[in-house]
Amino acid sequence: MDFYKGLNLAITVCDKDGNVLYQNDSSLDVNGDARTKNLVDCHNARSWEIIRHLIDDDTTNAYTISKKGKKKLIYQTPWYEDDEKKVVGGLIEFSIILPEDMPHFDRG
Known about the structure:
The chain is of the alpha+beta class. It is built from 2 helices and 5 strands; from the N terminus they run ββααβββ.
């Protein structure tokens, strides 16, 4: 069962070479079908450098954007082909539309 297929957030997964392995329905709607394509073909040089850094240095990148009048959280993080040894298998990106009136709570 694909638990991520119909979620209302976009999920895109690539291998460590940038080849797209998986997209859920929301990712397909936003990005078109990029499965079997390489992220280098869909990103500018600066973005590709960031993607390489995230994969090579096993680090996470999070930021917000505005696109088509909607604010989104972009969260990019490595996934591991070997969890115990922390061997990076590639990168997973979550793109989440943030509600205009989203509350914020401090839970110290």
